[in-house]
Specification:
single chain; alpha/beta; 7-stranded mixed beta sheet; 39% helix
Length: 659
């Protein structure tokens, strides 16, 4: 390279630097490289680690160790001094060396803190190499280890340090805890797997291709990392696809999950719809054959093809049977507006995906997948078929391409708790909970508060069927007379001891009352919402997922009562039911203390739907605890991984879905 070419390169870099400077000033950002000495104090440092010479990702060099010549560079390390300065001359000398025979061989010296690098020696070398968009720069690095704290950024960094020991990679960085182990699982590795050089090279190649696609779609403007976006993509596509996809195919596949990537930047990524009143609107009336009539027909469908996907057979699963009855109800109510396909017993993996593809080939415009384990198949299908409306029966899933639906069963539990409190002779009431998943602690607490409403001295003895298979029998053996068992799935299943049960003198159990799901009402309201336009009104365009979480007011649940229940108790139920439906009674709007005695509510406010759904504590009149994951029976662990109140703290499995 001759001097003229070096001068031209400096001119280009100077132009970039001045633009970066102006943009930073206009946006209120610091226009120069950050200075580590101004960020850190000795009180924030736990120690230093000598990493030796490594290849530093250029994009992660963000500042200098000391103030020094920082005013010579813009925030992106591009130069700011005129071409006739001594600084510019030295910069051009390095430029010529870089493209000459000897190249820039001396490593820079820098410090690393929280995944960012701060140059102590070699600022101009960094500037020159960045001007040529060099992906890495060799450097001698000293890591500055921050003191451990509850700050999420510090927790993520400590996870990164463990990941670095196994992989030697600095380019991979996440913004959320737990993500490094999820990446290991997504790649098919155990959590403590140490990468070989071959594995590191293969990953780096695929990662670079993904990064290029990410930046091309505008990823630099998002407050998420490339690795964050990759983990979203890996929930739908295998990593091996990065080796076979063309750049166009990769861009298209990333575009299919782009709304989920954007959703990572949301502080509240899920929009919870708690009422089905809008969805209950009838379809628009016939507007005639004029212009408006033709427009309405263009906007609102006249008929929908709806598919139901069940991972079990209805004759073998009470849950599948309840949803199948809901499907039958939809067909009976909307026979002239829907065509229905049914796929039973498809499992939760490849067969489920095949069933969804078959449904779409058969014309399906709406797919209802009736259990949480089907979420993986739903996400993959949604990415491939963005025009199909796909819903999964689960809660708290932050995926914009798949809407979820569930019911607020805790409202019914509050009422059965009130019945138990009114009918208890000694104030001891048993409760058998299923699994520590979203909504279950809320149901336990609502039941306990209902019991407290009618019997201030009532105590709830909590057991878990996911921990002990004989939980019901154990409570009975302990002399507990009233026990809340699992809810009745459908109102016609009354022979089993469902819901709130009373133990008879001979040890048998009779059912007194139980909440039940009315999935037929849910399906009718959701389908009518598509006809009316309510579906599109509840848009995901802002990057938030939509979760339907309906209760008594939407008639998604109701209460089944024993025929010979005392008249006074029956009247109490009707009063509570009416007040919950009209919104004048909220089960959690009352003074509440948890098991530690801490005040959770003073009675003047109320919990948001998200706070209720994600409760991970128990009321003070509950005797028992939420079981840890390692205490669960094997059959219960998969659903807790998907929907558990502590799912983000569970190490992922390489064979399971990465959420």
């Amino acid at each position: 390279m001759n001097r003229q070419e070096a001068l031209e390169q400096y001119g280009k870099a100077l132009k970039r630097g001045r633009k970066t400077y102006r943009d930073c000033v206009l946006r209120g950002r610091y226009p120069y490289p950050q200075v580590l000495d101004e960020i850190l104090s000795d009180s924030l440092v736990a120690g230093q680690v000598d990493l030796g010479i490594i290849e530093i990702p250029t994009e992660q060099i963000s500042g200098t160790k000391t103030a020094g010549r920082r005013s010579a560079f813009a925030a992106d390390f591009m130069p700011l001094f005129e071409t006739d300065t001594e600084f510019a001359g030295k910069w051009m000398d390095l430029c010529q060396a870089h493209l000459g025979d000897e190249g820039i061989r001396d490593p820079i010296h820098c410090y690393e803190y929280l995944g960012r690098f701060y140059v102590q020696e070699g600022n101009k070398r960094v500037s020159v190499l960045k001007s040529y968009d060099a992906p890495t720069i060799p450097g001698y690095v000293i890591r500055v280890v921050p003191l451990w704290s509850e700050d999420p950024a510090i927790q993520v960094y400590y996870e990164f340090m463990q990941f670095y020991q196994m992989t030697g990679l600095y380019r991979v960085y996440f913004s959320r805890t737990g993500s490094f182990s999820k990446l290991q699982a997504a790649l098919g590795f155990e959590a403590d797997h140490v990468w070989s050089e071959e594995e590191r090279q293969a990953f780096t190649s695929g990662y670079h291709a993904f990064q290029t696609a990410f930046f091309k779609l505008g990823g630099r403007e998002l407050p998420v990392t490339v690795a964050d976006a990759l983990l979203v993509w890996l929930k739908v596509y295998p990593f091996e696809s990065l080796r076979t996809m063309s750049s166009a195919e990769l861009g298209k596949s990333l575009g299919a999950v782009w709304t989920d990537v954007k959703g990572l930047s949301q502080s509240d990524p899920i929009s919870v719809s708690t009422e089905g009143t809008e969805e209950e609107k009838a379809a628009p009336p016939d507007q005639g054959q004029g212009l408006w009539g033709r427009l309405f027909k263009a906007v609102f469908p006249s008929r929908l093809n709806v598919a139901f996907i069940n991972d079990h057979l209805p004759q073998e699963s009470a849950w599948a049977r309840a949803h199948d009855l809901g499907r039958q109800y939809l067909e009976a109510v909307m026979a002239d507006q829907v065509t229905v396909q049914v796929f039973d017993g498809v499992g939760a993996d490849a067969q489920a995906e095949q069933a969804m593809e078959q449904a779409i080939e058969g014309g399906a415009q709406v797919i209802f997948a009736t259990t949480p384990p089907l979420i993986g198949a739903c996400r993959k299908t949604a990415a491939l078929h963005p025009g199909v409306r796909i819903l999964n029966c689960s809660v708290s899933m932050p995926y914009t391409g798949v809407r979820t639906y569930y019911s607020r069963i805790y409202e019914g539990k509050f009422i059965t708790g009130a019945i138990a409190g009114a009918m208890s002779r000694d104030g001891r009431i048993g409760y058998v909970a299923s699994s520590p998943i979203f909504g279950v602690p809320a149901s336990i607490n609502a039941f306990a508060l209902g019991a407290q409403l009618t019997n201030p001295e009532a105590r709830v003895q909590l057991r878990w069927s996911c921990v002990e298979e004989d939980a019901m029998d154990r409570l009975a053996r302990d002399g507990v007379e009233l026990i809340s068992n699992r809810d009745v799935p459908t109102p016609d299943r009354t022979r089993e001891p469902w819901g709130l049960c009373r133990r008879q003198a001979d040890g048998s159990l009779i059912s007194l009352a139980s909440p039940y799901w009315h999935w037929g009402n849910v399906y009718v309201k959701l389908v009518r919402g598509i006809f009316s336009g309510a579906w599109d009104a509840l848009s995901s365009s802002e990057g938030r997922a939509v979760n339907y979480w309906w209760g008594m007011r939407s008639r998604a649940i109701d209460i089944l009562l024993r025929e010979d229940l005392p008249a006074g108790v029956r009247q109490l139920v009707e009063l509570l039911r009416r007040d919950i439906m009209d919104g004048s009674l909220l089960p959690f709007q009352r003074p509440i203390r948890d098991q530690s005695g801490a005040v959770r509510s003073d009675g003047n406010g109320w919990f948001s739907p998200e706070e209720i759904l994600h409760m991970d504590w128990l009321c003070g009149n509950v005797d028992g605890e939420i079981p840890a994951f390692d205490r669960l029976l094997p059959m219960a662990r998969s659903i807790v991984r998907l929907q558990g109140v502590y799912r983000d703290a569970i190490p992922p499995e390489k064979e399971g879905p990465i959420l």
